[in-house]
């Protein structure tokens, strides 16, 4: 039991690899969600802007505004993403379990289940031309909630360079880094941001072709399998040598 309650070592490269693999999964899902559902499930900056585009397109007459963006899709994605962040983040805060192994396992397991359920919905109920239907909105809600919970988990691991979802801040922080030209061994933060962006992009280049040449269900299912790999990897993180989380919320020094 102490092994599950103990915090993992947040300084090791193993954790970096796990978060990067989660970013790969995110890229695969968003490469499907935008062409399939006309919105994002993790890039909520894009969804926020698309709300205005959706509202304007209802009154616009120019050719650029003719494409209708389903407002319910945007509302469900943004709403469930925020709910996922809130639920995951506040639960971890209340239990004082941000970096404990059991919480990482539980968090990744339930988000993986949500992704797999979304893949099942896409396989059984959602043909290419469906919008604003219950299966579509349920699929979006599951993927967005999972993305929100995932980013909440990653942010609480004190590794902001690998948020596993949003890329904008990573681009900015990468290129304003005063040690941008430093040797690889001297700038771990820059290395993390760069590899995160490349991994997120790689996920999109995997998910996009799978969606185009096969189906959205398969692409989302493969993203879920990637998350399963990370869940297994969490069993092998080393324990932190600084503190041990206990159910009494009292830090206890390691011997």
UniProtKB/TrEMBL annotation:
<feature type="transmembrane region" description="Helical">
    <location>
        <begin position="74"/>
        <end position="95"/>
    </location>
</feature>
<keyword id="KW-0812">Transmembrane</keyword>
<feature type="transmembrane region" description="Helical">
    <location>
        <begin position="194"/>
        <end position="211"/>
    </location>
</feature>
<dbReference type="InterPro" id="IPR010699">
    <property type="entry name" value="DUF1275"/>
</dbReference>
<feature type="transmembrane region" description="Helical">
    <location>
        <begin position="102"/>
        <end position="126"/>
    </location>
</feature>
<protein>
    <recommendedName>
        <fullName>DUF1275 domain protein</fullName>
    </recommendedName>
</protein>
<keyword id="KW-0472">Membrane</keyword>
<dbReference type="Pfam" id="PF06912">
    <property type="entry name" value="DUF1275"/>
</dbReference>
<keyword id="KW-1133">Transmembrane helix</keyword>
<feature type="transmembrane region" description="Helical">
    <location>
        <begin position="217"/>
        <end position="236"/>
    </location>
</feature>
